[in-house]
Amino acid sequence: MASMKPLKTAFELLAGATRATPPKLRYGFARAAGSTWYFASPQQRRSAHSNYAAALRLPPRSREVRRVARRAFQNYVCMLADFALIASLKPEELQSHVSVQGLQHLDALRTGDLGGILAVPHMASWDMGASVAGVLGYNLAAVVDRFPGSLNEAVIEKRRGFGLTVIPLGAMAARQIAVVLRGGGLVALACDLPQGPGVEVNFFTRRATVPTGPASLALRTGAALLTAYTRWNSPGHYHVHVDPPISLPLTGDARRDIAALMQAVVDRFELYISARPSEWFAFRPLFR
Predict the structure, then answer these.
(1) Which residues contact 105 (CB under 8 A, 6 or more apart)?
(2) 52, 132, 82: which is closest to 234 by C-alpha?
(3) Domain locations in the chain?
(4) What pTM, to 2 d.p., does this model score?
(5) Do the strands 165-168 and 140-144 form a parallel or antiparallel pair, or are they unpaired?
(6) What is the 3-state secondary structure (H, E, C) of the chain?
(7) Residues 222-276: pLDDT tens digits?
């Protein structure tokens, strides 16, 4: 019953209200909320300044760094508005909101016995990118955090409605990922920000620790390791770019090979982020 699932009901109402709100008003409110968040969150603001300073190769106190950081906070709230918008879209409508480049790299994996791992940064709306892959018929699994209460049920229902396989973050995730890969599917993993133990890499000439998941899975399963990212085209509309699989000579030393693969991943992330720094959502400490 709806009365027993208040968060799910609220999410569905928010989705309908978001769709009914004119885009100019919707994103104007989102940008204002993002600016308020930026000024009201000194710790996240300091982390953002440090991260964007590295990406822009400028001092953290420079005007451009502060401008990009503030815009990133605004863009994040715009992304949340689009997350609500997705919930009101039908699968056939979603395709008009997302363009894709590089599908041939995903199609090439269909001829093999294993799928592929998509390493992605926290840029723009991964939900838009992942959802359109499901709508286009790709067997894509996403490892995601849980939402509170019945909101988690509502979000999972919508993601599955677009053809996504949802793998909750937790102890069983690795086993479920392996099943997807052995079935020829794709697994998307965000890996540009620290999430517990990881491997050190050079990231915008500075040292950072990033998750090892994509590289570890690729070595353990033999699945291809690709990178991809999502960027804005216009309000509510996105573009997904998929690059070819990473190919490196392996040494047989797991630690060295994981480090080399994750460095190759981060090298590609640098190109994505440098082109669209305000669409990168890096609001927590990243660099040593």
Answers:
(1) 226, 242, 243, 244, 245
(2) 82
(3) 2-279
(4) 0.91
(5) parallel
(6) CHHHCHHHHHHHHHHHHHHHCCHHHHHHHHHHHHHHHHHHCHHHHHHHHHHHHHHHCCCCCCHHHHHHHHHHHHHHHHHHHHHHHHCCCCHHHHHHHEEEECHHHHHHHCCCCCCEEEEECCECCHHHHHHHHHHCCCCEEEEECCCCHHHHHHHHHHHHHCCCEEEECCCCHHHHHHHHHHCCCEEEEECCCCCCCCEEEEECCEEEEECCHHHHHHHHHCCEEEEEEEEEEECCEEEEEECCCCCCCCCCCHHHHHHHHHHHHHHHHHHHHHHCHHHECCCCCCEC
(7) 999 999 999 999 888 999 999 999 999 999 999 999 999 999 999 999 999 999 9
